[in-house]
Amino acid sequence: MLPAGKNIKLKAVVRYDGTPFGGWQVQPERRTVQGDIEAALSRIASRPIRVQGAGRTDAGVHALGQVCSFTWPADAMPHERLRRSLSAMLGPAVRIESVAPVPNTFDARHSAISKRYAYTLDFVQEPDPISARYAWCVRHRVDLELLSEAARPLLGEHDFAGYQSSGAEAASTRRCIYSIELHRGGVFGPCDGDRLWRIEFHGNAFLYKMVRNITGSLVEVARGKLPKEWIVQQLEAGAPFRGRCAPAHGLALIEVLY
Questions:
Q1: DSSP strands (E only) in the chain
Q2: For the stretch 167-187, what's the b/e string if a residue is b when 16 or more beta carbons lie within 10 angstroms of its beta carbon?
Q3: Percent of the chain surpassing pLDDT 70
């Protein structure tokens, strides 16, 4: 137990299915992941609790390792028991993977140094009833080697304004992508045959819909709809984004690193 009157800063790692949510961030008259977590925490603490997320995820986007931080009152439930109670209240769409104390200076968003996302592709003619919620069904023949080759010029630090969607303009559009890798299997596990593949992105930060815009563009190149050179041309041209935005349900926030 904490000493009387001494609050504690907590960090929680959150896993969720984004299908029923209007995104992470609290919005009026829409169910959101942040809204559900704050409501559960406030009920347990018997007072309003606000959380800071590591970043926003759009409606339909999933997370295996979203992170949030919040101040927890000393006279409320001990933090050692909080994870299980929260998961019981929030499940099955949301599960709290861990809850741990952190320094008061910790901020889930501003203390992050990089993030990992994965986008799952399902190469099948008809959407699979099980994977359809978590993968983009791509019915066209796709050259995976060409997809990987087209992604290479995006590595490193660039001005990614050309891959940002309008609606959430950032103060700076310079970002650094450390890796873009293609792996067999979706984010929730492997699949028989060659159906499911995922593109994993690791970078210091990402702009609004940047991962989805890059993914959609790479798929268009890999199916022969756009020339390989288009990827660099769009990067150099800057805003607005003129390519294809991959649908939200194939994207998942895998990990936030500190």
A1: 8-16, 52-53, 62-72, 94-102, 114-122, 136-137, 156-159, 174-184, 196-203, 251-257
A2: eeeeeebebebeebeeeeebb
A3: 95
| Active-site amino acid positions | 58
What type of residue sits at position 91? G
pLDDT of 1 > 70? The answer is no
Please write down the long-range contacts of 46-52, taking CB distance under 8 Å and 24 or more positions apart: 46/76, 47/73, 51/12, 51/108, 52/107, 52/108, 52/109
The phi and psi torsions of 14 (rounded to 5 degrees) equal -125, 135
The encoded tokens of residue 184 equal 């067999």
Same domain, 94 and 131: no
Q: Is residue 39 part of a domain?
A: yes
Question: Could you give the percent of the chain with pLDDT greater than 90?
Answer: 89
**139 band by pLDDT with thresholds 50, 70 and 90:** very high
Q: How far apart are CA 57 and CA 10, in angstroms?
A: 21
Q: Are residues 33 and 137 in the same domain?
A: no
Strand partners, 4: none
User: Domain containing 26: what range?
Assistant: 8-102
In this predicted structure, what is the pLDDT of residue 20? Answer: 97
Q: Where are the beta strands (DSSP E) in 164-236?
A: 174-184, 196-203
Are residues 12 and 98 in contact, defined by beta-carbon separation less than 8 angstroms?
Answer: yes
